Amino acid sequence: MRNVSQPTPDAPGGQSAAAPVKYDLTTLAARAGEEARPNRAAALVEPIYQSTVYAFADLDDLDRAMSGEDPASFYYRNGTPNAATLERALATLEDTGAALVAGSGMAAISAALLGVLKAGDHVITDARVYGVTYALLAEEFPRLGIEVSFVDACDLNEVEDAFRPNTRVVHVESLTNPLLTVPDVPALARLAHERGALLSVDNTFASPAVFRPAEHGADLVTHSVSKYLSGHSSAFGGVLCASPELVALARTRLLRLGGTISAFDAWMTMQGLKTLGLRMRAHSGNAQAVADVLVNHPRVKAVYHPGLSDHPQFHLAMDLFPQGFGGMLSADIEDAPRFVKALAGRIPLAPSLADVITTLSWPWGTSHRPLPEPERRRLGITPNLLRLSIGIEDIGDLLGDFEAALDA
């Protein structure tokens, strides 16, 4: 539930006062962000504002926009009305107070971290993070004079031992890609805050429909919006959800680096966002059902899903994710190449995730390709590991597809 201010007509002095109304996330996802845009009555769906620049009445009008006193779009790189609508919606869903949309998930993570880090600072990060995030932290940050330590974020003692006097950020994923481990976000937030550091959480695999890191102490929450937030493979971008102060720092970095989201991608994401709550229920239920079937099949060596009782963080996951775990799972499958071929024409091999249709990915050669081979194997990412992004199809049809491929 969320408290959303709605005007009440009988406020003292004839003024409309804000009375909190409790809405479920499904309702918020359908409505959030658009309540503040102009000409609401003229268009039920917000238009796409494709103009790269805007005209102003006079110098004072322009100065108010440039200073932030009267926020307005004035140049495409600085944002568009579509981006502003999406930012309002995502700040509401993650309950952070502010948000910043960017041209990609990596642009959002880069802006979030560079907004609070400088040369000489130190970052602690989970060794299991997404491959390109790993490369950013392992290769690019040291070039900027930022030190990075890779740890097992599920081992709180190891995280605690990694802290230094110059540690400024701890970065993890709420559900790691691709093995679905579950770091203890509340405990990590306490550890970080006790030492004057911030906790950064990439929430892409979960979405705010099933987990909201800020409610558990996270300071910086990021997403690739092309995944569950949009729900289709037609929009591209990223978002940082954080306090207004932290978003302002990140926005400065993003504008200087030029990581702007397009008006069309922001608009497309808003269209998908409206069904987030409904979609995530279907994703979560289907993924749990597929995991329950695969774990008992003789040709499946291992299944990685937080809803399985043998998952190493099962009890923590049940506590943090009471509404389900989203649509992601991974499986180590005997003769994975044959399995993929057997699914051809039914379930596509596509190196992304979170579409409404089920897809397969091969972490060894795609998402985690930037990691050295010994590190991939050490983390449990093998050539036979497949990542399954379970869609919202009929569960009987899905199970039939997987069982037929395994038996082929």
If you had to describe this structure to a student in words, what would you say it looks like?
By secondary structure, the protein is α/β, with parallel strands linked by helices. The chain folds into 2 domains: 52-272, Type I PLP-dependent aspartate aminotransferase-like (Major domain) (Aspartate Aminotransferase, domain 2); 276-407, Aspartate Aminotransferase, domain 1. The protein contains 14 helices and 13 strands. It has helices at 25-31, 59-67, 81-94, 105-114, 131-143, 156-162, 185-194, 244-257, 263-273, 276-294, 314-320, 336-342, 373-379, 395-407; strands spanning 2-8, 17-23, 98-102, 122-126, 147-151, 167-173, 198-202, 220-224, 238-242, 300-304, 328-333, 359-361, 385-389. The strands form 3 sheets. A 7-stranded mixed sheet has the order 3-9-8-7-6-4-5, with helices on both faces. The chain has a 4-stranded antiparallel sheet with strand order 10-11-13-12. Helix 3 packs parallel to helix 9 (263-273). It starts with a strand and ends with a helix. Residues 5-17 have low confidence and may be disordered.
Mean pLDDT: 92
Provide the number of structural domains. 2
Q: Care to count the β-strands?
A: 13
Structural class given helices, strands, pairing?
alpha/beta
Give the CATH topology of the largest domain: Aspartate Aminotransferase, domain 2
State the CATH class of the largest domain: Alpha Beta
Strand content: 15-25%
Q: What is the helix fraction of residues, given as a range?
A: 25-40%
Q: Give the N-to-C terminal Cα separation.
A: 46 Å
* CATH evolutionary superfamily of the largest domain: Type I PLP-dependent aspartate aminotransferase-like (Major domain)
